[in-house]
């Protein structure tokens, strides 16, 4: 049996941009992507702490150490610059493996979106 478990989590980052005209996705600072074990085009679940919105999109790489957290395309309507969000991804794995699996969770500074 396979189950879905949390694989990666960026806990509490601040939205720095919202570009409705972009094709779609979330732009995440490359340093944060690596720290959270996220890869280009990976599906992520976004939770907006300010308004309760929950939605899915995929990751695109932002400039390293820029602090960029930009929602693009239709997802831009779900946030306002300055909102604090949580970014999570999940993995499907064997039930027994899931019992010992530890997700990668990071807690960036919510003012700069940089690693502490």
The assigned CATH architecture is Beta Barrel
**In order across it, which strands form the biggest sheet?**
2-6-3-5-4-7-1-8
Amount of beta strand: over 45%
Shape: globular
Number of domains: 1
- The CATH topology turns out to be Barwin-like endoglucanases
Helix content: 10-25%
Secondary structure tally, helices: 2
Flag low-confidence runs.
Answer: none
Mean pLDDT: 97
Name the helix and strand elements from N-terminus to C-terminus, one letter apiece. EEEHEEEEHE
User: What's the total number of strands?
Assistant: 8
Distance between the termini: 38 Å
Characterization of this structure:
- The protein is mostly beta strands and 116 residues long.
- The chain contains two helices and eight strands.
- It has an eight-stranded mixed sheet with strand order 2-6-3-5-4-7-1-8.
- A hairpin with a 5-residue loop joins strand 4 and strand 5.
- The mean pLDDT is 97.
Keywords:
2 helices; 116 residues; Barwin-like endoglucanases; 8 strands; 8-stranded mixed beta sheet; mainly beta
């Amino acid at each position: 049996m396979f189950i879905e478990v949390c694989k990666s989590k960026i806990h509490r980052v601040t939205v720095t941009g919202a570009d409705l005209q972009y094709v779609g996705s979330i732009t995440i600072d490359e340093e944060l992507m690596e720290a959270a074990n996220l890869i280009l085009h990976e599906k992520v679940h976004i939770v907006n702490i300010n308004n309760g919105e929950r939605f899915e999109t995929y990751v695109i790489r932002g400039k390293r150490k820029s602090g960029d957290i930009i929602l693009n395309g239709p997802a831009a309507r779900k946030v306002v610059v300055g909102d604090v969000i949580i970014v999570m991804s999940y993995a499907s794995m064997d039930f027994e493996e899931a019992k010992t699996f530890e997700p990668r969770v990071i807690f960036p500074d919510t003012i700069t979106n940089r690693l502490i």
